[in-house]
Amino acid sequence: MFDLSQTDGEPVPEFARMTGDPRGHFRQLMNYATNHQGIGVVFDHLPPGVDGESSGGVLRLRVGLGPAGEFHVLAHELAHEMLHKVADDRPQSKTIRETEAEAVAFVVCEAIGLDTNTAASDYIQLYAGGKDTLAQSLDRIQRTAATIIEAVTADQ
User: What pTM was computed for the model?
Assistant: First the structure.
């Protein structure tokens, strides 16, 4: 075990984060997840480096993410549930699963006006995704993002 203060060199780069104000869209996204998709959402103290997780009908979000972070992580984890809960339709590759979920979250966050910075591309690259991965999943990404956008922008 070591402490970061015992190391030399440049600081470890941090991933970009989504910024901005999701306004009432977070409430609508929560409502869509819980009331229309039947998915539970809980805020929890997750392990370091984990902002959210999806596990069979329950989404766990890190406590203290801030408004843009909460919206982004909820959109990402909801995309996992919508795209990957059915085993027969779930891609075997973690690269594809993470690329799909993050691409959906990116499109949804852009649609409501969050500043996405390089957060989505940073995350997708972390899982070795790229333009080929995105291209092969484009239809799934587009359909899922459109469904979520429609739900969170209704009555706006």
Answer: 0.88
